[in-house]
Amino acid sequence: PLNLQSCIGFQGQTENGLILHPDGRTMIYPLGSTIVLRDKKDAKAQEFLQGHTDRVSCLALSPTGRYLASGQITYMGFTADIIIWDLETRYLVYRLQLQKVSQVAQETHLFGPTSDSCCAVQLYTSLVLLPVQLHLDCSVN
């Protein structure tokens, strides 16, 4: 497979799809099925989170900026993923796959007001409101 090294552009089609990380430097936005992490002062300083199989339709960031949740739009009969990313390590830490859903995660509410330890994700689909609670181990070893 080809590795993505750089991208140009911002579609702006995802509602609330441009996030400024609490570090004040990093912009986060979806571009197709990829999530772009870009330094706001250096357009060439980019990193990519890849794990979705269709267009990313929503993003939500935890209060501390450690975790990012992303959801995708998909078509009836295909799995639709909600992914929790650890932005410190840039790794996927949890994937929730739903079957037979036409649109997933049009709006995602993530995490409590001050903590990253638990997130409640509400997935608004064309079929049902599905509340999901994930408990993340955020303890430092």
What topology emerges from the helices and strands here?
Elements: E1 19-20, E2 26-31, E3 34-39, E4 46-50, E5 56-61, E6 67-72, E7 80-86, E8 91-98, E9 118-124, E10 129-135
Folded structure, characterized:
The strands form 3 sheets. The protein has a 4-stranded antiparallel β-sheet, with no helix packed on it. A 4-stranded antiparallel β-sheet has the order 5-6-7-8, with no helix packed on it. It contains no helices and 10 strands. The protein has 141 residues and is mainly β.
What is the compact description of this entry?
The chain has strands at about 20, 25-30, 35-40, 45-50, 55-60, 65-70, 80-85, 90-100, 120-125, 130-135. It is mostly beta strands and about 140 residues long.
Along the chain, the helix and strand elements come as EEEEEEEEEE
Q: Estimate the helix proportion, in percent.
A: under 10%
Strand content: 35-45%
- Order of strands, main sheet, comes to 1-2-3-4
Features:
141 residues, 10 strands, four-stranded antiparallel beta sheet, globular, mainly beta
